[in-house]
């Protein structure tokens, strides 16, 4: 078991690779006077490769098959049966989390989150919506949360039909199976921050499970660094005729939903339209895929979700948390929200044969590696600010965490990119400081950010300065 809190492990060290795209003389002018004595954390973490390899397609297939076996997992379906309906499904999920916790010495706190909804468009009768949550508490920063979610429920063509067979193999037993498998793999490690494995309910009826969890997190004061929602991570054959198991989409909002009018006014003059914390979580996932997930390329989609559609990350965005959606690139609409049938030789229905479990394993490993890297890193910089108007150089300032939150902190890395670049292209490690000047790099020409770097090289997402990019403060 890898435990960075016991002792350093120089064979398992990581930071992101950096593309040196600037002119040498420009970079040289920005080097601090102490650079020759600053120790830069290493840029490779072998433990993340080990995590990637441990995700099992066979276990995922077994779990998805079990979920499909409950017949329907519709939010309004049977809750008393031990073999059919959403009640049996959520009890089985809890039992799996309990088994995983027993194998790691009780490292998971497994709970239900419940709330009754009624008089909703798709919930005509009072119905209890129940989430199944497993929480793995952080060792240094337990109030910082990294969440992986998938939704339990399924449906057929009629959103109010809760009796017909609704296997929901890809939508979304694949996502829930991924959450359970990630818990199996990551529970064998200890992290600085808290990792949460969430099986949410009520998605098809109105994103109710996400609303429950986001409300509880807000009420209890969680510092949520990222919510990674997995909704359909098993299909490789699209309605468009494309078969592709090498790409995945990550959807993220560009402007924070909770932005105030004053923050919007500031953003208009300083930028940040494509640098919300959710967008920089998406960039982080993209970088993880490039470095640690073989034969997988992330397509960052600059949109909250698919056109005119929604997912369970949205309730978290709605209360101000960074949240993204991971899913397959090529959807097959004959396999979504369909009664099982054959018409004119065309098969409809979300059944097991439509799931590629090697692909599901690939996207599950992307989640697991991303969460591990974030949870081992220090918290993202807080109160990040920038200045440099009508000057030759750009200055960034930020706040350093206190107490145990900073126990694994080595220092910070500043980042910049041309305003038309989708990802961070330039960076420089600057050590354990709270202010840094990039000499002769003009503020008008680039976007800038700061990330925290651990002593063993794990790195936080990049924080864009100002309220547009803030991940929140420390508390």
CATH architecture of the largest domain: 3-Layer(aba) Sandwich
Structural class: alpha/beta
Rg:
22 Å
Amino- and carboxy-terminal Cα gap = 30 Å
Q: Low-confidence parts, pLDDT < 50 over ≥5 residues? A: 4-36
- How many domains is the backbone divided into? 2
Overall mean pLDDT score?
92
Number of strands: 16
* Widest β-sheet, arrangement of strands: 1-2-4-3-5-8-6-7
Shape: globular
Largest pleated sheet: 8 strands, mixed
Report helical residue fraction: 25-40%
Q: CATH class of the largest domain, please? A: Alpha Beta
CATH fourth-tier homologous superfamily of the largest domain: Zn peptidases
How many H/I helices?
Answer: 11
Index terms:
475 residues, globular, 2 domains, Immunoglobulin-like, Aminopeptidase
Care to describe what's here?
There is one protein chain. The chain has helices at residues 24-29, 46-54, 57-68, 85-103, 169-186, 203-206, 208-220, 261-270, 277-292, 314-318, 357-376; strands at residues 108-117, 127-136, 141-151, 193-200, 223-230, 247-252, 297-301, 323-328, 341-343, 346-348, 382-387, 394-399, 409-418, 426-431, 435-438, 446-454. The chain has 2 domains: 1-44 and 382-475, Immunoglobulin-like; 48-376, Zn peptidases (Aminopeptidase), CATH 3.40.630.10. The model is unreliable at 4-36 (pLDDT under 50). The strands form 4 sheets. An 8-stranded mixed sheet has the order 1-2-4-3-5-8-6-7, sandwiched between helices. A 3-stranded antiparallel sheet has the order 11-12-15, with no helix packed on it. A 3-stranded antiparallel sheet has the order 14-13-16, with no helix packed on it. With 475 residues, the chain is α/β, with parallel strands linked by helices.
